[in-house]
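Changelog-linked ticket: iron/sulfur cluster example.
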Amino acid sequence: MAMKNTAVIEVLKCLRRRYPAVGALEIGEPWKVLVLVILSARTKDEQVLRLAPRLFRRFDTIEKLAVADVAAITATINTIGMYKQKAKNLKGMAERVVQEFDGFVPSTMEDLMSLKGVGRKTASVVLSACFDVPAIAVDTHVFRVSKRLGWAKGKTVERVEEELCDAVPKKNWREINRVFVPFGRAICTPAPRCWACSVKDLCAYKQKNLNVPANADAVLAAIAKREAEFVRLKREVVQSL
Ligand code: SF4
């Protein structure tokens, strides 16, 4: 267990250095973070960040979102997948927050999960980002990366979350999603780029892809460009609030 903990701490130290920023969608007041995370279901964070300024210009309070026509919300977010359902979820969520919680996003897992469009992952992101509550939000990147590293073996998101809670010291729970998401997006992708991975010596994955491809420089440049685009998009959202 001591060995395992040492590896976990080392990996986190390394990834924290590489990905020091908070999550891409951790922007503004809790209701805005909640909105962004609801919109990000099965949608790239970049797409969510691109529509965020016009969404928050049009609905600059949760009360306005609560009384908006679903059609107006739909028209504002129709650049992303499942926008019709997501528009209904946003309105339903906002109505309940206004009516049941006096306009304040609740800060418990149970209350958050009572809101429309909010599952355990979304609730965990909000708890951890907005309320300093230790939580591990397991999305597709966290699921894949933690299994490859050998920190979890479960076949379900719930089981992987339990295993991670076991393997990772509680004080580090909040940073798992923050570092695994950009890492999983760039390096530990579905076809992993182990040749560019800074934690490969601490990883249990047996089929490491260590062959440096001929276009390695181009791949790394594309990763850097995408990261810079994230910073730019996030800055735009922050400036629009
Ligand atoms: S060595 Fe490969 S599989 Fe392991 S964490 Fe790095 S990129 Fe992922």
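Closing comment: Example verified and attached. Residues 216-240 form the longest helix (25 residues). The mean pLDDT is 95.
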